[in-house]
Amino acid sequence: xxxxxxxxxxxALLAFPFTPTRAADTPPREPYGIALEGFAYPYxxxxxxxxxxxxxxxxxxxxxxxxxxxxxxxxxxxxxxxPSSYWAPVIKMLGEAGFRVVVPDQIGFGKSSKPQGELHxxxxxxxxxxxxxxxxxxxxxxxxHSLGGMLGVRIARAYPDRVAHLVLTAPIGLEDYRLYxxxxxxxxxxxxxxxxxxxxxxxxxxxxxxxxxxxxxxxPFIDARFNIKGSPDYPRWLRAFVSSGQMIYREPVAHEIxxxxxxxxxxxxxxxxNAPGRPLAPEALRAKMGQNAELAxxxxxxxxxxxxxxxxxxxxxxxxxxxxxxxxxxxxxxxR
Length: 336
Description:
Distance between the termini: 26 Å
Mean pLDDT: 91
Order of helices and strands: HEEEHEHEHEHHHHEHHEHH
Strand order of the largest sheet: 1-2-4-3-5-6-7-8
Radius of gyration: 19 Å
Oligomer: single chain
Number of strands: 8
Shape: globular
């Protein structure tokens, strides 16, 4: 276990720039821009123009070739609270296995544009397919994490001929949160998120995600979010971030998951009980939310070609917390 944790810490720290504590006489650093300008990614970033609801936007992505290509491509779909750079160890693992790896930041996240309008899974799915078209990729393996799992479900349902295999890594959206949580006005959510401190966010990640990584490995995630706060474009970033939360709530995919016929693998952390909106649910309902491993197993049993694997002593960041087991499961499923 110590060896695995050390490996996870090493890859996490390599994936993100780390900023040491600032000395008293050191001038404050420049805040990151709204497109994470100043925050390093592990591979070159390209931009694809897209139009969502009449708005001209840019979708950022990494396109990483394998040293010895096997002719197949994996698309990685990130979660809500993480820029796509956190996939760095998985990109390396897949590349060494021969896969070309395409890693977009969805619109509203990371180095992509933050729209004036609302976010919708249908738009994000269309953008992802537009990226595959741009790169002349007819069919890809889709490996998704957290919120990316909800997007992966929407892509698999809307464009099943473009997906070969679907890997849902600690996905959210395995239940319909509207059954537990009352609707919350966007302005109220903006006010709440704006009051959150970096230390409060750290506690939120540790509590909600049951992260089994050292504290130093979580710091870059906090840095990526809170160093934007000094940017003049921060209010637009904040509104886009809250819009993603509303998208999760208003556009459930749980009812669609059993309809997926594609080969599907759920990889769950046994200790991951993340449930967006739980603090807003009536107290009597909170304990019923976030039984994610059990939900994954129940959904897989209803699907024609799916299975669920649960990794013990692991939280929401499965691929960083249990990298060796994750590699075994993913490469085995994709048929290395």
